[in-house]
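Quick one, T. Sequence first:
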Amino acid sequence: SPGPASIRRHIRATESKVRDILQKIISSSQAKYLQESIITQRSGRYVVPVKSEFKNEIPGLVHDLSGSGSTFFIEPMGVVKANNELRELQAKEEKEIDRILAELSAEAASFREDITLNYDLLIRLDSIFARGKLSARMGAMEPGLSAKSLCLRRARHPLLPPKTAVANDLSLGEKFDTLVITGPNTGGKTVTLKTLGLLTLMTQCGLHIPAADRSAVSVYERVLADIGDEQSIEQSLSTFSAHMKNIVQILDEADEHCLILFDELGAGTDPVEGAALAIAVIEQARSQGAKIAATTHYAELKTFAMTTAGVENASCEFDVQTLRPTYRLLIGIPGKSNAFAIAGKLGLPQEVIEEAKKHLSEQDESFEDLLTDLEVSRRTIEKEQDEIAAYRRGPERLKEETQK
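Structure tokens:
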């Protein structure tokens, strides 16, 4: 527009005039008073750097000092008028810019509704495309919605790479309302718990989830979780105290519209009391109608899940031969903690492990042996089922070939 163009032409001419005056000072006999033969700016005004001992040799206005105090930035009297003119022109330029922006804003305001609508649509489209890209990257699918139960087929944690993550089937709310997950440390119990919570929340945010077809998720008003160790020196909270503080808040809010996730329920205190407390907390949350998934190492909770209607055991599989977790979740089977096997793998001397085994009670030992027998039986059955399935596929292939 012509207004700013004219003002800027005058600004360039005035700047050139100021520089010419200062250049004459730099080129004159007064140059010996300068720290450097340069023209610079301070507070928007053109100045020259003068040595502190010669500050009175060049009459003018002092605008600044160097950090060491050895240089004074002085605006010579000869350029004060030109600098003032320059500041006036700059103020005019700003005023002219404000006027133009006000006109443009007023013109845009007449299209306010269209602009707002387009803005909202672009945000919505951006969100849809972002969800689509995320879905493609995770190899995700659109889950179904269920009124009461949650059924995830081949579900994976959303942050794990799709190609390497071990997929698991998870269900809650149809045949049982509480899932007690047991198994070794580093076996994937907490990751399973987080997968359950994250996939539920992702569905409720309108996201696709990393799971197989025919997966369905129930809609909850709240997902309440006590996961991780929140101990705090500052707040005088031990591991147990921090867990209890969370559990108290969770029980206050628990109802039939809640999904509750407990990690290492009852941990951090005496094992007998901790196990009893864990069972009581689960029963209380169940009585309030909540759906619950909890991880634990306590044998008492495994027994509780075996003997209580509506509560189901699950375990994270552990390969005793290789002493490595497989990260597979097995619903219906309690798991061993395999503490001795893991400790041995990590380098704990064998004599220490043998000594530890002596301190196990006969009841504990027989229970762990029972779990081992169950695990062996399960593996045998799985192997036989695979062999039967392979045997069945043989005649089917032969039949197809014959028909062809």
